[in-house]
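go over whats below:
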Amino acid sequence: MSTTTPANPAAPADPATVEPPAAPASPVGSEATRYHETVHTPTEVANPGAYPPLVVKSYPGAPRHRLPWPPERSAHRLGRLLADLGGITRSQWLTPLDMLPFTDSFEAIPDADPLQWLVTRRPTPSGGARYSAEWYVIAGPDSEVPTGVYYYDPARHDLVRLREGDYRGWVASRPATTVLVHTNVFWRLAAKYGEMYYRLACLEAGIQVAQALAVADGENATARLCFPDADVTEVLGLDPREEGVHAVVELLPPVPAGYGGPSLAAFPRAYGAHAAVLAQSRPDPEPLPAAPPGEGKRISLPHAAPDLAAGTLTRHAAMRGFNGATMSMGALATILTAYGQPARWDLPANLVEFYCVVADVTGIPAGAYRYHPDAHELELVGEGDPRQRLREAALAALTQQGARTANVWLLPVGDAAAAEARFGSRWYRVQQAAAGAALHRACLAGAAVDVASRIQNDVLTHLLDSWFGLTGRRRSLLVAQFGTEHPGGLRPEFRLTW
């Protein structure tokens, strides 16, 4: 996930000076709403050197539980899952040109001999490669590790025991055997992005949850983003000012399959009566009030079945952008299917709306569209070649290059008023997480069909809102670009876990 501060914000700065449309007055005390309305780009960090450059936590003297290595060759399900979530799983050779998106200029690249660097990567994108996400494990008696509370150490691929005993009752909403807790170390992002760190942390929560649900095959995984944060923070022994708890993922491996008996499909009324009871006992989250469908032209898309798990093996950020080759309608359908796919979590499926911009896709006229997942259709909301509009909204050179050469830009849209009415102060966090999850699912689906992608935060998305026809407090939140990767973009990469 790229969030690059432009080297010279004053040069193309006209877009940067354009503020979003004035929103209705915020409810008294709504700090999240004020943050949403005022923080759109990174802010200056007075003393970045005050934040230590540590990307792995340390618990000196705490007992450790070793996990099998390499995880793919082990039957240890939890070890494989943790490696696929936050492990150090690959390394890349980078050149100064590759490092440029992570710095302000060539002069800022910290090396006296900048020929090449060997850098380590994790399975999911992170703003500026800061890797602020952490994972903790709360294990019960039936887990694959002894009962207790653990920190997952990605550098050593082992678990650091923080507490003994069964603490699942503090966090689990169902009879899970193991609970994974996602946190974010705020200062790792704040050292580079200032006030914008919280936005990035919320987005990464959605990315982490989407990754967990994609790789937890056979674990009957469900996620929760609404839970007693203070209780979970206390169990983990964290300082909430430095590290926030953003999500929990509950795992319940299935029991062995038994004889199911004959089919009851011939008795649909009886099954319907029973299914209604089940739905009432664990209801799905109630949808938010939906924006009415527009009157724009509709385009039906071909059926697609994205393989998100396969995409986790090859997903990477398009380091040097795209080459402009035409995209097929089938590839677009695959990406959009994953984009709007419901998640197994406690948030409404329509917490964000699924907007996109298309250029040079076979059978799809260029323009802005709203994607309707239930109908699997695109609804035209803005006509015309979008490339100049996207370039004006982009702050950094790499993002502007993507505006010229990518084929698809996904822009989740959130209704702040509806989300705040439902979730209170938590609305901003869950809405940003839903946006991050939607884009990560799309990136995984794209990777599975050889479409490159890059999630970008250095885009003034509010400049596009009027083109989309958004009104009230509905706003586009961030962007992911998709296309054929530039031939110079793939870097020599080595998988560390195979």
